[in-house]
């Protein structure tokens, strides 16, 4: 069980670090209600890691995404618009970076990637969703 928990922590940390190194062009993309695409998924993932977005990650910027952006903007004391503009992206990236600095990483365990199966994947899914 401890091994599975460490694997989960490692994978979550790896995912959060990968969000930081997303292409710079994405950070300049302004997203608003009705926007669609991978950039919306990236925004939702970042908001989810930070605890603002509670829904299922999709490619559509709807009510839940707008509400999460508004909460984030209020907390970070930036102009509250519900639109993911350059100021919002900048604060998101800073917040993700800060969160990563406070996350411990344990290396030396089985690496899981797309296509993996088995008890490690099942355990990771249980821990991720709980």
From TrEMBL:
Q: Which Pfam families match?
A: PG_binding_1
**Is Signal included in the keywords of this UniProt record?**
yes
Fetch the InterPro entries from UniProt: Peptidoglycan-bd-like, PGBD-like_sf, PGBDSf
UniProt keyword terms in alphabetical order = Signal
Q: Which Gene3D superfamilies match?
A: PGBD-like superfamily/PGBD (1.10.101.10)
Signal sequence interval, chain numbering:
1-27
Limits of the Peptidoglycan binding-like domain: 37-91
Domain of life of the native organism: Bacteria
**What name does this protein carry?**
Spore cortex-lytic protein
Species name: Fervidicella metallireducens AeB
């Amino acid at each position: 069980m401890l091994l599975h928990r460490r694997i989960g922590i490692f994978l979550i940390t790896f995912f959060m670090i990968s969000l930081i190194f997303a292409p710079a062009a994405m950070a300049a993309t302004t997203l608003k209600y009705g926007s669609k695409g991978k950039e919306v998924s990236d925004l939702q993932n970042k908001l989810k890691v930070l605890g603002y977005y509670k829904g299922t990650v999709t490619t559509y910027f709807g009510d839940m995404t707008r509400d999460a952006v508004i909460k984030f903007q209020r907390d970070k004391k930036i102009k509250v618009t519900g639109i993911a503009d350059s100021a919002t992206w900048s604060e998101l990236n800073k917040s993700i970076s800060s969160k990563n600095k406070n996350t411990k990483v344990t290396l030396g365990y089985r690496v899981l990637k797309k296509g993996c199966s088995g008890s490690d994947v099942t355990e990771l899914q249980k821990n991720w969703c709980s």
